[in-house]
């Protein structure tokens, strides 16, 4: 199990002051990955458990990433809770899909992805991806083009 804490997410949330004031040891999400060999045709299977919470008015989210091998896709299966998967192309075109128990999401090749918990309980999602895909976090140093904030209607989408 890998745990990502608030301190591990500098620059991810829009409100840097709220992030600094948060408990740096607060667990934001855990990822459990089933071990698998790395090689052509091999798959990783993992479950992300993204806690409910906010930094300022922005919902907890995963760091998000492209694959190092951009041509590799991924599949998400919603297990529990409710939230969103944010998908963004290299050109910056972004869209959102609702994640709920039983939902299925195809993450196309050449697409960055991030989970966002818009609910009041842990959002859990199972992912399956090629073991050769790798992760590229640096490509998103400037962030995604969309941000999701709490509002009276549930959530509000704002541009970057």
UniProtKB/TrEMBL annotation:
Residues 5-155 form the Glucose-6-phosphate isomerase prokaryote domain. It holds the Pfam family GPI. Keywords: Gluconeogenesis, Glycolysis, Isomerase. One of its GO terms (molecular function) is glucose-6-phosphate isomerase activity. It catalyses: alpha-D-glucose 6-phosphate = beta-D-fructose 6-phosphate. Pathway: Carbohydrate degradation; glycolysis; D-glyceraldehyde 3-phosphate and glycerone phosphate from D-glucose: step 2/4. Its EC number is 5.3.1.9. Gene3D superfamilies: Jelly Rolls. This is glucose-6-phosphate isomerase. It is an enzyme of class 5 (isomerase). GO terms for biological process: gluconeogenesis; glycolytic process. It comes from the Bacteria. Transmembrane segments: none annotated. Belongs to the archaeal-type GPI family. The keyword Isomerase applies. Signal peptide: none annotated. SUPFAM superfamilies: RmlC-like cupins. It comes from Enterobacter hormaechei. GO terms for cellular component: cytoplasm.
């Amino acid at each position: 199990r890998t745990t990502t804490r608030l301190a591990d997410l500098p620059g991810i949330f829009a409100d840097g002051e709220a992030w600094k004031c948060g408990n740096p040891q607060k667990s934001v999400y855990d990822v459990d990955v089933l071990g698998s060999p790395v090689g052509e045709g091999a798959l990783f299977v993992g479950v992300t458990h993204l806690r409910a919470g906010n930094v300022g008015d922005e919902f907890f989210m995963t760091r998000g990433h492209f694959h190092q091998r951009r041509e590799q896709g991924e599949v998400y299966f919603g297990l529990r809770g409710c939230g969103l998967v944010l998908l963004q192309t290299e050109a910056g075109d972004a869209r959102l899909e609702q994640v709920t128990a039983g939902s299925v999401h195809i993450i196309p090749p050449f697409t960055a992805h991030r989970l966002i918990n818009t609910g009041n309980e842990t959002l859990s999602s199972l992912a399956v991806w090629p073991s050769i895909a790798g992760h590229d976090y640096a490509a998103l140093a400037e962030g995604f083009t969309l941000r999701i904030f709490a509002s009276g209607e549930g959530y509000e989408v704002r541009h970057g």
